[in-house]
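Weekly puzzle thread! Below is a chain. First person to post its structure in token form gets bragging rights.
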Amino acid sequence: MSISTVRLYEFLHPSSCASRGPVGLVAALTLLQNGIAVRIIDKDPNPRMGQRGPVICPRSLELFNFLNVPEVNDLGKLNPPVRLYKPVTLEIMNDSSMVPHMEPSSAIPFHTPKLIGQQLLDAVLRRHLEKFSCFVETGTELRSFEQSDEGIAAVLAKNEILKTFYTKWMIDADGAEGVMRKQLGLTFLGETRDMAFVTGDIRLTAACLDREVDLSVSLRPTDEVGEDGWQFYLMGSNLDISIAQKEERIFETIASLIPTEIAFKKAVWVNKFRANIRMVNKFNDGRVFVAGDAAHVHSPTGGQGLNSGIQDAFALGWKIALVARGLADKSLLETYTEEHLPIISEMLEMTTAILNQTVGTGNITSRGNPKPFMLGINCRLSSIVLDEFTTPVDGRPINAYGVLDEGHLEAGDRAPDAPGLLHIRPGESDQTTLFSHYRPWYHTVIVIAPSPAEATSVLGALESCDKSVIRSAVILPSGGHTYSAYLVEASQIKIFVIMSDGAIVHDAEGVKRYFSKIFVGM
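Winning reply:
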């Protein structure tokens, strides 16, 4: 089987995927790890430049860990403190933090956001794709497509030569300006604010700008641009975004806001936009799916754009793979819209509130608001989620983008980590963690039981399952991290099925009921 992924459009053969930047590359990597070969096309002749949205939230760091991409956490920088100055002066107003402080814990190993520019992130992901002999086809563009009950015929153009490519599925992650969503006729309702932004990467030196302590709300030091590199943000309702067209005007505008001598070197990359708050009415039409900015856009405040797109790609990839392999009915793909519409709707409300705060106060920090960490997002109301320990309550708020509550855990929530686990089989004495066993190409069945004998019935029920898509582990009493994180009492038996959806059940019959919602023939 093959799939194709693009910076602008990614195509799966027999499934197909379209992407711009990390969202599409994550979708492609998820598919490849699920045994679906991927083809990647990119309209532009060269890789994208620019830091763009550099914030990688803790939940996204977890997903990159599951994808075996540790470089994102290793290369990412901690958020520097923020120093606010009075307008057009170097008089300090206050020092603060961009993000709330969270102590690391055994259940949350990735406890703080990291910063990594998208140009570097793209390169990291491309290297992982190349391990599967999957390379980005640059200068290749999607011109049109038609879908039927059997599949999709997509017309691709390279050097103005048109070729038709046949595929079963397509994922559109080509950004807000892409054509695929428009061809599908999906609505993109919302609002455009007067607030304008010009952002980019620049090289400069100035005596007042301390790369060690931190700067103003508009400049962030980043060595990815150069030893004198900065990512800048200019924003304001009266900002003339045409300054983005000329390097000199960028320099003049920044100099007018900082009363000190600045030696400008180079504007490496520049972009301009207005604050758009929009989302689609559904995340797929037939065999074509949308993800990332192709499905939802918002202001850059809150740092959720790239991260929510990564969640889209990860969740959709394994579902398409199961359907493409004939292991699941295509009705499974309808849960993508079902799960992500409430998540994105609440995300837009949150980022808009942060934008309003920024406009009203000039304060871009989000101290005290842990929601952007994305550790509380969930799909509890998904039709394939099964929870035998929680009683449904009519009229209960959806709260799909909630705050992490470590004292409460339901099916559809983020699964916590637990370290200090010991293999009990001969020759497997090394310690391990739960996170090291969670991967996007199989469901993990965790049986927490007082003794091996009490897990026998569950393991027996899984004997006939395809080991490539369902794996299991029995957790016996030890250091207690798992029991604490998963809220299990010492004498209790609880069974967890881990994927981006999931189940919490009592016994083998519960496991069968959950998998019958996903796999054919179970």
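Puzzle host: Confirmed. Bonus trivia for everyone else. Confidence is low (pLDDT under 50) at residues 1-12, 213-217.
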